[in-house]
Structures are given as structure tokens and as C-alpha cells.
Specification:
Elements (H helix, E strand, L loop, with lengths): L1 E7 L4 E7 L5 E5 L6 H11 L2 E6 L5 H4 L2 H8 L3 E3 L4 H5 L9 E3 L5 E4 L2 E7 L8 E9 L2 E9 L13 H12 L7 E4 L5 E2 H7 L1 H4 L2
Parallel strand pairs: 3-4, 4-5, 5-6, 10-11
Antiparallel strand pairs: 1-2, 2-3, 7-8, 8-9, 9-10, 11-12
């Protein structure tokens, strides 16, 4: 499995690409502002064929390019229904085809199994997407956490108490080696978050 990411827009929101390998169908996670040109580069270089957009929340910094991707490649966007109102704020730039995701869903997208955890707090419909990647050291889970969990804290805004509950109930139960790929900032692991995430240490 290939996983790569890059920052987008003025807020440096992370956009991720997940694919089974070169020439395979690919998932785009959180395509923010001005993400399309960079995504096209990755599509061309690796022979990726985009299959779907997955949004961890409905905020524009994570979703602004979903319309262009959906229209350009005729692919759907996945989102929790509680964030449809946020997506609507994009106006004409909101994606035309939206498939709802819910807690506990297992999506088979681009020949990749994606688990969905509803983690309300940052927004009512915030979700985490989890995949299992094969590595030289065996299978390792990767969690795309959006603004629910960052390397040293939590995303700003929303209901922080609810957000902490979501993190404790859905993410802190994962193995320490689980890779955290957040909506902003560098990647980390669940184990590192247990030790150093200030919001969790206070609880």
C-alpha cells in the first residue's frame, strides 16, 4: 500500500493519497484548497486512477477541492451526515455526489478496506478513517484523524470535551504503533500521543 500526503491551502491542511500500488485506484482524503494540481501530478507520476474522496469533516480547508475532483473524475465524496450543513457552506463548490458514512462502517473503496470511526467534537460529523498497511515489520494500522487528533494536541474549535471523549474512546484503544496521520502537522503514533499530547495528559 502506498500512502503519501502534502499540505494544502493557507492553513496547511494535510491531503492524503492512499493506493494499493503504482497504477492502482486511489483514495483521496481531505483535498483542501488548491489541492488538484498536486494531486494530478501524483496521479500522472504513479498512474493512479482516483476512485473516491473521503472527508474527515466538512470544513472548507479539508473539503474545498472535493467538487473539482468529483466533477473531473466522476467520483463520489464520503462524509458523515452530521457535517452536511458545513459542506453546504461551500455553495456551488460542494461535491455533487455525497455518500454518507457512519460509525462502524467498513468501506471497500479502490480495493482497500477502510474502517470508519465517528469522533464528534471538532465538528458534529468528524470521523477517523483507518486502513491496514503491510510493511516489512508486518501489518500496521494507519489512522487518518483529521482535526480530531493532532501530534501534540487537538484541532481548534468545536466541543473540546466531547472531542477528548471521542479520542479516548475511539483512538486511545488502538495499539501504540498505530500511525496517526492528522489533518495538520506531522505524523505521529498513538503511543506518542499517549505520552505527549497535552490535551490527553490533562484528563
Amino acid at each position: 500500500m502506498l500512502i503519501t500526503g502534502f499540505p494544502t491551502g493557507p492553513g496547511d491542511a494535510n491531503c492524503y493519497l492512499v493506493a494499493g500500488g503504482p497504477g492502482a485506484a486511489a483514495i483521496v482524503i481531505d483535498p483542501g484548497d488548491e489541492a488538484v494540481a498536486t494531486l494530478e501530478y501524483y496521479f500522472d507520476v504513479n498512474g493512479f486512477v482516483p476512485a473516491a474522496v473521503l472527508l474527515t469533516c466538512g470544513h472548507a480547508d479539508h473539503a474545498a477541492s472535493a467538487f473539482d475532483l468529483g466533477a473531473g473524475w466522476n467520483i463520489p465524496t464520503y462524509l458523515h451526515p452530521a457535517d452536511r450543513s458545513l459542506l453546504a457552506e461551500l455553495g456551488d463548490a460542494q461535491p455533487e455526489t455525497v455518500i454518507e458514512v457512519h460509525d462502524g462502517d467498513e468501506l471497500a473503496v479502490a480495493d482497500i478496506l477502510v474502517a470508519v470511526d465517528h469522533t464528534p467534537g471538532h465538528t458534529p460529523g468528524s470521523v477517523v478513517y483507518r486502513v491496514v498497511a503491510d510493511t516489512d515489520e508486518g501489518p500496521v494500522m494507519a489512522a487518518f484523524t483529521g482535526d480530531t487528533l493532532l501530534d501534540t494536541g487537538l484541532g481548534d474549535g468545536g466541543d473540546q470535551q466531547q472531542q477528548v471523549r471521542s479520542v479516548i474512546e475511539k483512538l486511545m484503544v488502538l495499539e501504540n504503533k498505530t500511525v496517526v496521520l492528522p489533518g495538520h502537522g506531522p505524523s505521529t503514533t498513538i503511543g506518542a500521543c499517549r505520552r505527549s499530547n497535552q490535551n490527553l495528559q490533562e484528563k
